[in-house]
Amino acid sequence: MVLTIAERLAEIGVSLLVAWPLARYLVRLNRRERWPAKVVAAGILLLGYVVVIIVGALYLPALLRVIAAIALLMIAAFLWRTHSDYGRRRGLPPGSLAPASDKLFADRDYYLKQHRKHGAVFKASPGLFHPHACVVGHSAALAFMKSNGPNLVAPTPPYNDNIPKGFLRYMNEEDHRAYHKLFQAAIPPPLVATHQAAVRDAIRGPFTHWAQNGSTAAGLPVEPVMTTMMFAVMTRLFFGITADDPRSERLRELHKEISYGDKGQYDRRLAEPALIAVERLLFDDESLPQTPSTNPKTILDGVLRDRPTATADPTVRRNLIYMLETAHRDMAGLLTWLLKLLIENRTWIQRLQEDLRSPDPPPPDSLGRTLADRIIMESLRLERSEYLYRRAAADVRIGPFTIPKGWIIRICIREGHRTNPAFDRPQQFDPDRFIDRTFDRTEYAPFGLYQRRCIGQNVAADVGRMFLEELFGNYDIAVVEDGPVQYRGGHWQPNSAFRLRLIPVC
Length: 506
Description:
The chain is α+β, with helices and mostly antiparallel strands. It has 2 domains: 1-81, no CATH class; 158-504, CATH 1.10.630.10. The protein has 19 helices and 12 strands. Helix 1 packs antiparallel against helix 3 and helix 12 (247-258) packs antiparallel against helix 13 (268-283). The radius of gyration is 26 Å and the shape is globular. The termini are far apart.
């Protein structure tokens, strides 16, 4: 009898043990990404599994024994996959496929440590069943992408399904060639300079509000201010919409409904009505210019100049909508990180303020870069260029290793920037490393490594420079609250509690 009870308890324990990693992962996922639908569905399955175990323990001991045997085999297979040499005979790179959820989401240097341990190519498993092959080193990654290009597919975000031919960077080759030419020509280098006064006003307004309303001990949270500010800037550059335009507030509300953002959830059916409303707001006959401009002042003008009927194409319309969405969120993220890095390296704030307030500021370097430009470039190098994802559409080779079909390949851009010998003291924030010097793609790749690089890099640089000039030319900043960096929405970001006060400088 004692033996039977002990056996039954052992069978229950083994059966439950196999479900424990999934339960723990789902709890962490819900706290971090807020994916209630997925978490609830998986939770129901787990609960059903536990009910089956209880029923087996009470009434069907033979069923419980079968479940325990299967669970024991799964545990053994799991333990074997955690071994670094798992799959070496099949050509897999070194590294553990144990779910890295705890470590990965608590340590932003996880991939850097794996690189130091295993070398430039290694395997990992951020989730429970998502094997990744990770590549650190821009030269090796670029060669890999060139040699395996047709067999590497970029995983698409959920909003891609709301665009007939897909978002620009995820289109097939034929469509991409046609649409890339159209959108690239619509963003001329002087775009931001053309709107300089309006862009500066869109930046100054939030700063004035921030200084007046965030002057108390509480300050104001950085990220929401940056997001609101950059939405105003980008709606001006894309569509010529100003803050007093009656469409402005409605457009902001609709974008909340179509946004993927950092929520980690997106419902295509719920987004569709909002997208239709945005299209009516931006592309109806009254909103569009009557005659295409030969000297376009907005991105929409540039599109219509080269293709007057472009907005009749839903792929063009929805690409413009989601370009606005991604552009303003990416810029807000960059500026939030930029402030975080400057707070941690205050000597650069002092230098920038001295330059901006000097009656005789230093001239740009031989490449036309100011200190503000170099601060942006260094912020991109350290924190705002994290990774590229590709999915293997067939077995692919990198060096001596074989990456199986279906695996995700993570090109570790951030880690490549922090290990490249081209950068002296690569972990240190040092904007002066860019004085009078350029770096090629095998060394510095904040806007993409191979094909389909970001077409908005000049816009990002120009807006970022104006942001720094307006902020540190008129204010000082003080930290009110901060915390450790957080993993949110698939990226490491400054803590959501990051709050600053703006102090006007007379």
